[in-house]
What does this fold into?
Amino acid sequence: MSKNVVIIGTQWGDEGKGKIVDLITDKVSSVVRFQGGHNAGHTLVIDGQKTVLHLIPSGILRDHVECLIGHGVVLSMSALIKELGELDEAGVDARSRLKIAPGCPLIMPYHVALDNAREAKRGKAAIGTTGNGIGPAYEDKVARRGLRVGDLLDLKAFSDKLKDVVEYHNFALTQYYNAPALDFDTVLAQALEQAKTVIPMITDVTEQIHQHIANNENILFEGAQGALLDIDQGTYPFVTSSNTTSGGAVTGSGVGVTDIDYVCGIVKAYTTRVGGGPFPTELVYDVAIDKGDAIGKVLGTVGHEFGATTGRQRRCGWLDMVTLNRSLKLNAVTGICLTKLDVLDSLESIKICIGYDLNGQKITTPPYDAQGYADAKPTYIEMPGWKTSTIGTDSFDSLPIEAQNYIRKIEELSGLPIDILSTGPDRNETLILNNPFKE
Ligand code: GDP
Ligand code: IMO
Ligand code: MG
It folds into this structure.
């Protein structure tokens, strides 16, 4: 029997999804991205060589894998062409194995302009977006005015629609945001040029996926961002604009809920967040001035916690079981993949947040809004550290007992098994305890 596995981030992104997707694609015929866009930054390290992917599925480094971009993804042709160029340079032939759904909303230059104008206007309350036009592109989709990849198949109609949309957004840009207008002719000329690369890749991705299922082939669905950035369930408004939870794999690709056999929840052994918004277990440290919490500094430095897309410093803190347990439910996680355990190697002791104190009340479920999170004071349990290197551990039993206890504690608090353990960035620094594709 073939299996369909979804991989999603359970925190605020950057849990190590790309590494795990690349690792277990040895067992699949195709990898499908189903939401988000080039706001994602997925890092793959193979024998020390690093590749960062934003839009192209993390199966691309395996020659036998077909890479599919489902209609839930917002597609920037500029970002796609840049990434294809980078892969060309690295000698990876992506073009013949990449297929794009006609239903993907296009991210156009006015989306980027709007994203940046809005963030500037928000000032201190800025979301800290990637500035890639993700939110405005999803808005155009929901408003039913957006251009889609399939529109490129009729360039005359594309050009007519584009004229209206540019006019509409130029009004907001100039009249509301006091920003410069975009020139329609320039936007059109650039899109027509870029379309030449994209058009040959347009495929009925939904049908393609169902063909693979009919052929009894394994498929991997690759999530972007993390559950706490989900537009509906995340720390609104400090979220991204798509459904980052496992349900997004269904709506963003064209399979049904019962087609999914296993959901792998990627959990970083601590927590990070990039951009604005509440973060109850944060250990505040500012790398620019080298000031703040000493453990926050260790996590950020040892874990190289800098954004793979924007280069921004990622905020770091302890593992938070309140948000994590909610996240595991939202995604119907089957098994956990715990990553970056090695980053904790030097710590004397390690904390896990097991509840919040909210205005004098003890709670173990997350508040419903960003203000609630901002007011929540975490309560912790503390466990001894192991102060030994775990990098590249090749068996569970050879881990120091304190590390085994930390892992067992997470299993106990979540009620789920840890099926994969990652103890280093490299593809082979991983312990697969229970392969999601196992029959
Ligand atoms: P993604 O967005 O979820 O794919 O994660 P990112 O690639 O943005 O960030 C994860 C970072 O951690 C990358 O730099 C990875 O190379 C690195 N990484 C992944 N797993 C491990 C691990 O187990 N240990 C260490 N030290 N680094 C890891
Ligand atoms: P991967 O797939 C971490 C964050 C941004 C910002 C918020 C909204 O690598 O885990 P957007 O540009 O999406 O409108 O920004 O979401 N964000 C991410 N944070 N990892 C990501 O992707 C992210 N993609 C978006 O920093 O706070
Ligand atoms: Mg990332």
Notes: Residues 287 and 301 are 9 Å apart (CA to CA).
